[in-house]
Amino acid sequence: MLRARGAAAALLRLAGAGASAQSGGGPPLARAAFTRGFLGKKVNKEAIEKEKARLKEEIGRGYFEDIAEIRKNNGKIAAASKVIIPEVDAVKFPDLAVESPDGGALHLPLVAPAPQDVGSEAGDGVTPEAGDGVTPDASLVCLSFRASSQKMAESWSSPFLDAFGADKNIHAYEVSFIDSWLLSSSPVRQTFLKVMRKSNNPQKHVVYAFGDHYDFRKKLQIVNLLTGYIYLIDRQGRIRWQGFGSATQEELSSLTASTSILLDDK
Predict the structure, then answer these.
(1) PANTHER family from the entry (predicted)?
(2) Reduced to 3 states, what is the DSSP secondary structure of residue 242?
(3) Among 68, 265, 61, 251, which residue's Cα sits nearest to residue 142?
């Protein structure tokens, strides 16, 4: 009988501790357990809602729809910029971690440090180009989400470097996205990088972005993954010109003129 009463008292004390934890009081360990559980449920709920929205978006737009759009417009899902985008209208290029076959790693866009930051570590997690520590006056960033669009990227980067190759502070980045979980895992990723093509031009960087890129694409409003996306970035990491698909002569002229303006304004 005494044992039963003792067990009942212990259960009552335990129940009281649980109720006290839910009300914000009680022992520290009980409060901590409740907080972890509450935050965990909240985070999980947000992650589930985010994934549901992503699945709805990707299911709603199929592969064949992307193909039809590419064939209809020859990869031009939108018109390229006619002139340079003014500073007041320019948006920041989202932060993107990339790796190169030579073992280097950096974050795009490369941003010049503010005057008060000179001599200190770069802020915002942005790393200067490994090797020279110089922030380009203008960078051409060409994004390829599928192998079919890599030739599109080259149609922009090669003429760009031909036109501005004499300026050492001009760089071109051909970024290929690798979303395969196997290729993104280590050490498979390192093996993959070793066998990929390298650039012999110090101003041309062939780099790779590994893992899920959904959030990055959302920031740039990228939907069709079968075409190329081209961005001219200034020293502050802002998008000052953009194009799509393969380059035309008219578009290259517009890109060249916009780049020249950036160089004159530096």
Answers:
(1) MITOCHONDRIAL ATPASE COMPLEX SUBUNIT ATP10 (PTHR28106:SF1)
(2) strand
(3) 251
